[in-house]
Amino acid sequence: MAVLLQVELDQRIGSLSLGNRKKVGIIQALQHRPRLLILDEPTSGLDPLIQARFFEVLEEENRRGTTIFFSSHILSEVQRLCHRVGIIKEGRLIQVEEVEKLRSSHYRKVKVEFATPTQAVAFTFPGAQNLRIIDRTVEFLYQDQARSLLQALANLDILNLWIEEPSLEEVFLHYYEGKDGQ
């Protein structure tokens, strides 16, 4: 593993950079094949190449049956590595869910581009959350049937419409801003 993570084995720990000390810590944590691994912001200080190798190591450990608790503020890492996610707000666990279920079953990210900025500013729709207006574009999260939304938009002068699953980061921000995690 030292070769995989490119650790300099001939130097004292105290003389190593933050990233290299982090690599040594990862090797120490994994060398005894733990059944439970708790990692807090493990990729800080690692360059992108080593991060990719580290993710491969974690995925292999998980396939071997290791349970991994992975804390990170980099939600793309969480989305890539984790099967389930817990959202903590002010020291309280406010939501635990499978990553894909959290992303796909709760909200849709909607982006509507109107013909004019005036139409964007005038747009209102019940159930639209985290509404943002940028020039003639309106973005929001929506948690109801698409049919209602499409009926409301049908008679408006729309140039483009996007409806997609929100990223894990957008879902997290929605909970963190207090909408569902009071």
List descriptors:
elongated, Rossmann fold, 182 residues, alpha+beta
What this model shows, in words?
By secondary structure, the chain is α+β, with helices and mostly antiparallel strands. It folds into 2 domains: 13-82, Rossmann fold (3-Layer(aba) Sandwich); 108-165. 36% of the residues lie in helices and 27% in strands. It has helices spanning 18-30, 48-63, 75-81, 99-104, 117-122, 146-153, 168-176; strands spanning 36-40, 67-71, 84-89, 92-98, 108-114, 128-134, 137-142, 158-164. The longest helix is centred in the N-terminal third of the chain and has 16 residues, at 48-63. The mean pLDDT is 84.
Provide a quick synopsis of the model:
This protein is of the alpha+beta class. It folds into 2 domains: 13-82, P-loop containing nucleotide triphosphate hydrolases (Rossmann fold); 108-165. It is built from 7 helices and 8 strands; from the N terminus they run αβαβαββαβαββαβα.
